[in-house]
Amino acid sequence: MCGICGIVGDHDPVLLERMLNRLVHRGPDDEGTHHDPGLSLGVRRLQVIDPRGGHQPVRNETGSVWAVLNGEIYNYRELRKELIQKGHRFQSDGDTEVLVHLYEEEGPEGVYRLRGMFAYAIWDRERDLILLVRDRLGIKPLYYSVQPGHAGAAHLVLFSSELPSLLEGLPGWTIRPQAIADFLSLLYVPGPDTIVEGVYQLRPGEALKIVRGEVAFWRYYRPEEEVPCQVEASQGDQRERFLHALRDSVQAHLVSDVPLGLFLSGGLDSASILACMREVIPGSIKTFSIGYDAPEDQSYNELHAARLLATHFGTDHTEAVLRPDVVSLLPRVVAGMGEPFADSSAIPTYLVSELARQSVTVALSGIGGDELFGGYPRYLGLRAAARYASLPVAMRSWIASCAAFCLADGSGGRDVRGRIKRFLLDGDRPLTEQYLRWTTFRPAGWEGPLFAEGLHAAVVDSAALRNLRGLFGQWPSQEPADRAMGVDLQSYLPDDLLRMGDRMSMAHSLELRVPFCDHHLLAFACSLPAATRLQGWKLKGFMRSALEGMIPQRIISGPKRGFMLPIGRWLREDLREMSRDVLSDETIRRRGYVTPAYVQWLLAEHDSGRRNFTDQLYALMVLELWQRQATQPVSSLPMGVVVA
Fold first, then answer.
1. Which residues touch 610 (CB under 8 Å, ≥6 apart)?
2. Are 21 and 644 in contact, with CB atoms under 8 Å apart?
3. In this structure, what are the phi and psi dihedrals at residue 214, rounded to the nearest 5 degrees?
């Protein structure tokens, strides 16, 4: 795992050092640079594969091709052996060097041979070409900005693993107004855009090629291409194919020259990974969980299920029972993300990463299992909504109006009241709109203006929401739940969960691996229609059935679990004073994003318990904290986040 950055075009060499200084947390073990006229590459390295000899950047035998890599190539040993047989000479035992020799053999198309999580840059001096590539599902990040040249000069291209690093080269950067609106709707800024004007992310499965100053894009992978490969098979054959694909992925993700472990939430995904790890690791397996000690937070506590799994599989289990100082913790989490991000799961992910880093350098996680195998209630909700749509619209509209007055909001966690209310409120809408309303966060009930006048004038109909509607309609299936899973694979998974997992683990110099995001396992999952994945009208019904006998029955039949937290209560208690300060009328007016009256309404309704506005309030707090940090010099950021 590393942080990479680079500059293409005429530039001050000192800029690369400034960019690298913002990536120290991603790679505290080593630093490397390479400079050619009009080109600089930099890397901060976390030593995982070939700790002694894996220094980057790497080059080919003649020094005409150079590469830097963030991530891991899990099949590098097989590729290395093949390339040696073809006459290539290696100077290390690391995975990065495979990239330069594979590029010599197959050019940019060599990416099709790679299995792993990666964002890399390849510099071909003889062709005056630089290639930037991001992995198929977007596990590893890569940001870039193309600045127009002056007086006929070539473009200046900056790229980096994280936004704060890239912004070192853009001293006059500005916030993109549309991104504020998108963030308040989704709790993240969806790619390929960012919060900053003129700065973008490579899409999952995308490459950017710069040849003699000319920029071109290439989308080498799209998950929807896996769907037409659906095959008819018996349930027994499907189970065997699933277990083979899962075991193969987990084993590939165990390639490491340093200690590794597992985030153990007590849910189905981490349990299945642990079962596969135990089949191939006879010795100690380190597992990590967190929970909360307050009696009122026990509905969020996953420690009992995690302990059951740790005992069943005989792991070396470490857990932290917390009542964290969330007032001091929240700014560190915001700084670790480096951009506005309001999925509150970032907080427990930050904490469990901190816990794991005390004893391992690499940790596996169950991220991706829900999107592949149907783990979210909205998938069942859409299946039910398709049947509910057979009722007359007038009847559904009447039921919706009754639900608005008769049903209270849910309290968060696993409370189903809110889900039932949302289902009935939106039951008279088209399925696409129901999906959007269930996955966005504009609250119902506010009758005044939401956006302040300046932002309202700058914001048009959300391109992000139009894109989600397009993804829902384009997924090659007539089953609404299939379409929802397809949308989540291309939006929520890379832009929320994987972004969060990468930043919160890397804030502690921990490499996070995600076996469910292996493209071979994804191909199998896409071969199953939603009716199979949600077998028996159960979340992950197929997966639960396939894992019978491998993990304890209590886990198979248990509810969805994950690292959750009681932030709704915290906003009424622990974070009450902080929220009033951060969201004061003066601050809200100064920023000019939303109206003070709207914010005061959110605070009053949430504090009274009449409504649950956890997500909306947390998003506004994160946005303000991020903006305060983004305008500070590096030396004044929270300690231990990005400062060497």
1. 408, 409
2. yes
3. -90, 135
CA-nearest of 299, 287, 305, 352 to 500 is 352
User: Strand 316-322 and strand 286-292: pairing?
Assistant: parallel
C-alpha distances out from residue 598 to 161, 405, 570, 578, 591, Å = 36, 21, 21, 18, 14
Kindly report the pTM of this predicted structure.
0.93
Reference 6, options 172, 130, 140; nearest CA is 130
Tokens 């004007």 sit at which residue? 197
Work out the average pLDDT over 571-596: 94
User: Which tokens hold the place of 368?
Assistant: 């991706």
Share of the chain above pLDDT 70, in %: 92
CA angle 162, 517, 291 (to 5 degrees): 80
pLDDT one-digit tens code per residue, 452-483: 988 888 887 677 888 999 999 999 999 999 99
Residue 297 to residue 289: CA distance in whole angstroms: 16
Query: CB-side exposure of 404: number of CA atoms within 13 Å?
Result: 12
Residues composing the chain: 644
Residues 6+ away with beta carbon under 8 Å from 401: none
Amino acid (one-letter) located at 463 = A
The answer to whether 180 touches 623, Cβ cutoff 8 Å, is yes
Average pLDDT over residues 70-93: 95
Tokens (6 digits) for 301: 């506590």
488-511, pLDDT tens digit by residue?
999 999 999 999 999 999 999 999
DSSP-assigned states of every residue in 33-44: EEEETTEEEEEE
Least confident of 106-115, 161-170, 207-216, 383-392: 383-392
Contacts of 470 (CB under 8 A, 6+ apart): none
In terms of Cα–Cα distance, which of 339, 337, 333, 5 is closest to 161?
5
Q: Shortest CA distance to 588 belongs to which of 449, 447, 442, 445?
A: 449
Contacts of 143 (CB under 8 A, 6+ apart): 159, 160, 161, 162, 163, 166, 194, 199, 200, 201, 202
CA triple 104-107-113, angle to 5 deg: 95
> Residue 134, SS3?
strand
Residue 473 CA to residue 468 CA, distance in Å, equals 9
